[in-house]
Design a protein that fits this description.
globular; 15 helices; mainly alpha; about 75% helix; two-stranded antiparallel ribbon
Amino acid sequence: MNLQTIQAPIESELKEFEKYFKNSLRSQVSLLDKITYYIVKRKGKQVRPMFVFFCAKMVNEITHATFTAAALVEIIHTATLVHDDVVDESMQRRGFFSINALWKNKIAVLVGDYLFSTGLNLALEEKQYEVLHILNKAIKELSEGELLQIEKARKLDIDEAVYYEIIRQKTASLIAASCAAGAASVTSDQQIISQIKQIGEWIGMAFQIKDDLFDFGDDNIGKPTGIDIKEKKMTLPLIYTLNKVSPDEKREIIHIIRNQSDDRKKVRNIIEKVRANGGLEYSTQKMEEFALKAKEALFTFPPGEGREGLHALIDFTINRKS
């Protein structure tokens, strides 16, 4: 099922959300207005707002508070991407020039800061304190996860347990917050909000493992890139492979990642070792386990468009091609 088909039950809400999101970014500073216009025109799939709307719909009727939650989620997500591009020195985002490529790092950092403050202020103005609490915690966890990854990447000593903690914080936390914020926009029942947040966390874990798989690729996923290897990121297929190969092979792989990650041929050799040692199969299995946990938990909620839409989004997460 493609994303357009999945969106159908909330199509009108998403159109209204786009206007709300655009208006929330307006500024009297012309440079900021120009940059935020550029951001809005080149928006991504808006999967996180979809999580917000479907989770709200699964619990109750969508309200104005749901639009605030969706806007806050998308603004925070956009801010993290702007800052990530600066940190990663990336010149492109979704096939277009990144903010730092067009306006340089200083402006990009300030734009990211502006987005963070705009999102938080939006929640305060609308008195959405529970949603604000949920997203503020996600920002904290996201930052901690990124720093933990950097810390561990220096030594290349990430085991599977540490890996799961990193991706729980740096990726799953925002998807979990999107789901929890959607629920919190229509109910004050903390048990329901907590249940839905856990579903989002499992989806987020599956989402990140899928991203890991893109770095190695196969006929179903796409062309191998090796970007994570070049950036010295320890992904699940690589961690599994390091635990499978001989001590000498492990030392060789770590040496290449640490000292020769710009050598395309050597990176390609690592990709082949990961494939040969079952790294992709193992990671796919783990991804599907997290997705299954999320799907099973969905059935504690009543049937309807919200639950069906969320179920379809889970399938989209683990089957997407980009």
